[in-house]
Design brief:
CATH topology of the largest domain: Rossmann fold
Strand content: 15-25%
Shape: globular
Largest sheet: 7 strands, parallel
Helix content: 25-40%
CATH class of the largest domain: Alpha Beta
Structural class: alpha/beta
CATH architecture of the largest domain: 3-Layer(aba) Sandwich
Oligomer: single chain
Number of helices: 10
């Protein structure tokens, strides 16, 4: 990708983060903030709206505030990529040879799947088609793709058949994703069927890990599926000391995954003395 295009994408992400923090912003305000013309800002806002990340209004833009809104899989994979990779690198260290795992559908759990090639004799259950495809050629993993109805655009299965596949099983660890995460309601998702399956995944696991980047914090989606008392461990990129203390007081182990904390973990799970290059 050309440097100019990289800069454009970085600016769009910065605009998205800025508007999310303030709930809305005007075109003139964004021009002043980012030092570009109104035509450039309007082009950026048009692209962000087309990707269903923001809603344009007269003279400005506002956050996509619907609790039922959910970006499709293709949208999720292009945002907060570095944070998701660092979270996945930290999560990979929690997996031991011989583990039986549930990998929930999501862009961060997909990053985790990419890092499991060095783990031996693991068994993996997932409803994510992309994750199953990645792990198909794992040298010693047994991979169970959970059957059900395919959610178009989301690369995963849901529904009664998916629930039936899981209800009598037990796994060592569940690595879960969420669209939203708050101290009041825990983890939530816009889709009721997805919530049902996530709830069951959690119930069959001995230990439950949540992989949630900081952009999901302080938000609630339509369907809650994991109150704080069912979560054993939260792995995120950054978190305030206040929120971290609240979670730890509730018995949740909190791991901050940053370039510093994931230094030494390579993509194949081996150790290295150099900093990870994204």
């Amino acid at each position: 990708m050309k440097k100019e295009q990289v800069f454009v994408e970085e600016r769009k992400q910065a605009i998205l983060d800025y508007v999310k923090a303030r709930k809305k912003a005007g075109v003139n305000e964004l021009c002043e903030k980012f030092g570009v013309s109104s035509a450039t800002i309007r082009n950026d806002l048009r692209d962000l709206e087309q990707n269903r990340l923001l809603v344009r209004t007269h003279g400005g833009v506002m956050v996509q505030g619907q609790a039922r809104f959910e970006p499709v899989a293709a949208d999720k994979t292009v945002h907060h990529v570095d944070s998701k990779r660092h979270i996945a690198q930290a999560a990979q260290r929690m997996v031991e040879d011989g583990d039986t795992l549930v990998l929930d559908t999501g862009s961060t759990t997909l990053e985790l799947a990419l890092l499991l090639s060095e783990k031996r004799n693991i068994t993996i259950l997932t409803n994510d088609i992309a994750i199953a495809t990645i792990l198909e050629n794992h040298p010693s993993a047994v991979v169970h793709l959970i059957g059900g109805i395919i959610r178009k655009g989301f690369h995963c299965t849901v529904g009664g058949a998916a629930l039936e596949n899981l209800k009598n099983l037990t796994v060592d660890k569940a690595f879960m994703a969420a669209n939203s995460f708050s101290l009041e309601k825990g983890a939530s998702t816009p889709d009721l069927q997805q919530a049902d399956l996530k709830r069951l995944m959690i119930s069959i696991a001995t230990k439950v890990f949540f992989l949630v980047d900081s952009s999901k914090f302080g938000r609630n989606s339509f369907a809650g599926f994991a109150p704080l008392d069912v979560i054993d461990s939260l792995i995120t990129d950054t978190i305030s000391e206040e929120d971290k203390t609240i979670l730890e007081d509730k018995g949740i182990e909190v791991t901050e995954a940053s370039p510093q904390t994931t230094q030494g973990c390579t993509g194949d799970g081996t150790e290295s003395g150099s900093t990870i290059v994204e």
